Give the backbone structure.
Amino acid sequence: MLLQVLQILADGQRYTSSQLIRSLGITLVELEQTIKTLIDYGIKFHPAAPYHYQLSEKIELLDRQRILMALSPAIRGKLGHLEILSEIDSTNRYLLEQDYSGQVIAGLAEYQTAGRGRRGRVWVSPYGSGLCLSVKYRYEGLNYALGGLTIAVAVSVGQILREIGASGIQLKWPNDVLWQGKKLAGILLENRTLANQIGDVVMGIGINVNMPYVETRLITQPWTDLQTALGTTFSRNQLAALLIEQCMTACYQYFNYGLNPFIPAWQTFDMVYGKSITLTIPANKGEDKPQSITGIACGIDETGALLVQVGNRKQRYLYGEVSIRR
Ligand code: BTN
């Protein structure tokens, strides 16, 4: 019902409750409950007269047909299934459980009730104001470790955002996408092994597109959105198509050629290169404290590992959280 109500309200016009009830064939109580849920999910309404409803801004809802039509014929032909969900716990979790005989599938949600972020964090995105996209790919043979794919996807997201006009995009190893030092997008890869060297990898991409300020109290780090970075709005459907296209292309390229083709582009985005950093590596079982390494960041190698000059030795690290030292 959320989606049906929003499909009417999306144009930003003002509607009376009786108009909405009549068009949707629901009761006033059902309408009021739906509006309350929308407010809980972060949708902002104009303060309107009693029994009148108007969104504070127009919303461009996700449209499967528009997204499919914006894909190149080659990628459209390879995409086995595209699903648009009004709400789901997590598109990554959902896609991991879908099986389309090993074809590439993609899923987008207007809202995630339990969006997954890196390191067990929650990914918060108010209804209809971000992009929550997952693409699932079945690999058969693993010439290159999956760790590098995270970097390839981050580079792809950075390239798309740069191409549509967000200048100054930076990537913080391994896959934080930032603009002016604030988080604009995040990537979470999840993997399910099916047999030796065969498995499904789900590439989850979350982008803040047009975030209402008051509803983002739950986000624990400095953040920004695409509208701020571009200084104008950008179509969510167009962006979804660009991301699916680029993400699938990156996957084919990575599984065939590894990370090397992505490294020059990574270097143009690398936020910490040449800087003095601290790398915090979470404690393993049996260890009581996380490990902290300080040194100078020297880029990545062909596996996606972070290279850090520590004293007179260059070391490589596969995990950890990077912060720049002041
Ligand atoms: C991060 O913490 O930086 C990664 C965030 C990844 C969020 C995306 S939104 C689509 C997909 N589904 C999820 O549950 N998470 C990813």
Remarks:
- The longest helix spans residues 236-257.
- Residues 95 and 263 are 29 Å apart (CA to CA).
- Residues 2-53 form a domain with the Arc Repressor Mutant, subunit A fold (CATH 1.10.10).
